[in-house]
Write the structure tokens for this entry.
Amino acid sequence: MKLAIPRITFWKAVAGIFLLGGLVAAVVRFGWGLGVATNLSDVTPWGLWIGFDIVVGVGLAAGGFTLAGIVHIFNIKRFKPIVRPAILTAFLGYSLVIVGLLFDLGRPWFIWHMLIYQNPHSVLFEVGMCVMIYTTVLALEFAPVVLERFRLQKALKVMKAITIPLIILGILLSMLHQSSLGSLYLIVPQKMHPYWYSPMLPVFFFISAIAVGLGMTIVESYLSARAFQKTLETHLLRDLARIMFGVLLVYFTMRFIDLLRRDALHYLVDGSFETMMLYLEFGLMLVIPLLLFNIRGFGQSRAGLFFTAFSVVLGFMTNRLNVTLTSLESYYREMFGTSYFPSIGELAVTISIVTAGFVLFGLAVKYLPIFPHHEEETVIDVNEAPERAAAPKIDGDPAAQLRRH
Amino acid sequence: MVALFVILFVAVLLGIDLFIQARHRKYPIMAAAADAAPAAGLRETVRIPKSVFFHPGHTWARLQDGDHLEVGIDDFVQKALGSIDGVTVPAVGEFVRQGDPVITLRHDNKELHLVAPASGQVQSINTDALENPQLLRENPYREGWLMMIKPSELASNLGMLHVAESAVNWIKEEISRFREFLNASVAQPAIVGESMLDGGTPVSGALEHLDGEHLQNFEEQFLR
């Protein structure tokens, strides 16, 4: 029997290297502990794994509840074709957040303690419970895709019957923990830079998650269409982008008023690293996407939509990393004379988790009915169209001799 | 510093991806075709959906909700024209007759007139596509639809149109005929320019190089 060897592309090779690096780092982490594997310390206990794998990861997965809410609660059915990819992203995103958390916990095998030894006064407890329940809800929301694939009609009927309660529960849980991730940082006002510490952090986290959830849906739809040669629902993504900008404008208006109210605007001219990072955040998340989206002939195109949304995603990442890491840097420096930069092991784990997300998303799209069935079509290669007899030598008007009979 | 590192790392990965994509698109004419037809990779292609009815004048109609027809221009003509600067269609409420020129495509100062694939009253028009003709390029059969009509003689009109295998055979024939048309025009090199001198048989953007007279010939031979 002849085995088909898949073609190794550049990105497949890179993904393989990243995953291998992550595997080695995981062995070091679980074999020798956090002290050897990471640059974390008692002074800087939360690093890249919390900042990126969890705080960024949960936000990027927000498209699931946003799209599900738009379609099933607000009943805007035309967005239905992109609900499944959004829920898949959310499900994979939350699953990988949990994987990231297991790396970060000193003794991950005690994670179940949260269920028994509850501390209802802790924001972290709320986040933990919400993420746990919401991941279960996402698994149930995603289940119809698998049931459909294996034609399990009875189970599919049951799942469809509980879709709306599940979606409502999912939205409720998302509202709770997306905002509570911001609440985690409310207890360290003296450590954070005034740009990012705000009593409004929970609200900012929630609103920005809605915007980036829509942005991620555009990015993943574009990349999937490119990788799997599917038709892109450009008109829907264009409308999503418009909604995203609406949410972003609300978000940045609130951010600006908040900075103004807390008298933090005067730092904008101090030329510090934090100021540069704030400009980067605002530029990537609002200014550049707005400019890109409004370039005539480009902004509304497939590529234009991708770059617009990708910039929002980058800006969102900058914001979350600014809140979780940049805002604390000067405090560490001034109080302890130290700074934090992730170790190779931390970087390898984070990169491999993101890579795993891409690989699993690709496999799901390939083997499950994630994207809507598209109309069958024939693609004719222009150069394979049959040659007709050589054109006669033309005198006078050449075209006139080729009139249709 | 960590935030900056992460963003730069992601930006570098995006840059590498863009570089790889750019290398795959070595020939711009092919890249344009691929961009418009993702299913076709980097080949120069023409798409024919199975459930769409094609008028020999390179417009299409798709039955919607049993009693409406969505109407647009086909992939062949939009590729041949290269880029479209503007589109004009009849106003809502107007009656169009099968075979009458009702759609106008503009490129630079040139115009092409395409016929209605069926008769009926215009019920709605796609203002998104009229404001952003790029949509016709991205997917002329979906987002690039131009108007919705309520057909008046559906059965007899559909009999005049190509569908499925008939449409595939017809469009292959049209590509061959178009190749001959261009080869005939290349007898005067200034007309079609360099694109025909590389030994290839390009379709994408070929009409951009024709002058008014030859464009009119194209209209008479291919769009009626």
